[in-house]
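fyi for ur records
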Amino acid sequence: MKIVVLSTDTEHYMLQWWLPHTAKKFDLGVIVDFNCDDNSDDNTYELYKKFVPHWRYYKVTQKEVSNFLWDVVLTKIEKDLLEEFPGSWITTLNATEFLIGDLSFLDNFKMN
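which gave:
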C-alpha cells in the first residue's frame, strides 16, 4: 500500500492542483493541516472534501503544536499508519512537492 501524508500550513492555494495529481498515485492520503486558527481564511478542509473525501484529515491548531514539535506530530501519524497498515510505503510531502513518474514499482515494496 502506498500512503502519502500531506503536511500543510499556508499552501492551500496549491491544493487545487496537488490533491488531484497526488490522489492518482497513492492508495491513501492523510492531510495534516497546521493552519487551523480561528482567524484563518484557509480553505484546505473544503478542498479536501471536494477532491479527496476518502482520505483522512487531521486539524492541528497552532496552539497545540509549535514549529519545534511539527516533526513530532508527523512522526506519530506515520507510526500510527505503519501500525494500521504494516508493510506500507509512506512518504510525507508538502503542497509544493509533486511526485511524478510511475510509482507502480512500490506496489510490491515490503517494509522489514
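The beta strands are 2-8, 28-33, 56-59, 89-93. thats all i got for now
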